[in-house]
Amino acid sequence: QVQLVESGGGSVQAGDSLRLSCAASGLTFSEYAMGWFRQVPGNDREFVAVISWSGRTTFYADSVKGRFTISRDNAKDTVILQMNNLKVEDTAVYYCAARLGRQAAAQATDIGTIHYWGQGTQVTVSS
Hints:
Blueprint lengths: L2 E5 L2 E4 L4 E8 L6 E8 L6 E6 L6 E3 L7 E6 L4 E6 L8 E9 L15 E2 L3 E6 L1
Parallel strand pairs: 2-11
Antiparallel strand pairs: 1-3, 3-8, 4-5, 4-9, 5-6, 7-8, 9-10, 9-11
């Protein structure tokens, strides 16, 4: 049974930082591109960042480029989203995502291709 468990969400002020973690189990972690998506109630879930199996390739949504960094530790089956200079508009539920394939990083930016999801963690940024 595949599980993706997010942690690290919370309530912060604009300009602060948060570090989200996603612990994966039940899958061969190094076979998957890993990513983060977010969703505001009433809106579609949107792409935030993705990282290839090796960690050498990353993609970011334009809205978070230069502020967020995605990384992974294949020895610990963990993917991290470091979020700096948070803005009010970053408020959302953040979901960890996994897509099978060592060449799948680009495809993993497409929500329709994701194989597994975490349960989500709330991030609230206030002004």
